[in-house]
Fold this sequence. Notes:
The protein is mostly helical. It is built from five helices and three strands, in the order ααααββαβ. The chain has helices at 24-53, 56-102, 108-189, 194-206, 229-236; strands spanning 212-216, 219-220, 249-251. A hairpin with a 2-residue loop joins strand 1 (212-216) and strand 2. Helix 1 runs antiparallel to helix 3 (108-189) and helix 2 (56-102) packs antiparallel against helix 3. The protein binds zinc ion (ZN). Zinc ion binds at residues 213, 220, 222-223, 225, 243, 245-246, 248.
Amino acid sequence: MRWRRNRIDLLVAGSDCERIFVNLGKRLYDLQQLDLHLEKTTETLSRVEHHLNHNEALEEAKSDLEAIQKDQAALHEKQRDAEHGVDDLQAKLKPVQQKLFAGSVSNPKELGAMQQQANQLKSHIREAEDKVLEMMGQAEALQNAAAAKAAGVDSIEREWAEKRNQLQAEQAELMATLDSDRKMKDEILIQIDPAHLQLYEKLRQQKQGNAVAKIAQGRCQGCKITIPVSELSQARAGELVQCGSCSRVLCVP
Ligand SMILES: [Zn+2]
């Protein structure tokens, strides 16, 4: 709901002695409505902008995917080291087996030791190969997890693209509203006496933004106290009157 500018009350009293009647309470009330609307719009804009800059679901999915990719890289390195380990053991086994098969060693004690060494190396190779196989299984599981997470990120991003367009449109509209409200406020401000403005700002701080109260059925709508008749007529005459009880500026609607 856009705030609509209220026209300044004008009263032309007679053709030969024209004077402009300014309802001070009403003017400050208009300023207050504009200020309240500005505050509300600023808050909404800040919420929209926060939302635009923080898509928690997307950030979380991306961070999960990064964690999986890190695990994949670490596992890949471990697997490569383990494969090199297998290669090293096989390189050690090869000359031992060559010697054994060549039959060049005849000393039974030396032959037995070589056989034992070959067996030990074979056993280490099996263990190392088992580890490599286990890591290959882990790598496959991580690959599947990464693919599923990447699909999740894609889906959130597609939804987000649509939502982001809506939010950007909302942001543009709110910024345009703020811009026009500020211009309107500038126009109102130049019409207000600095002393009245100072009083208004002071009361605004003290009364949580409600410096001006309307009068309804002879009562101040800020504190519900009945306004004395003399003050009521002063306010009706457009003078700046404050409520004797809550100090708010009174406005005759
Ligand atoms: Zn009051």
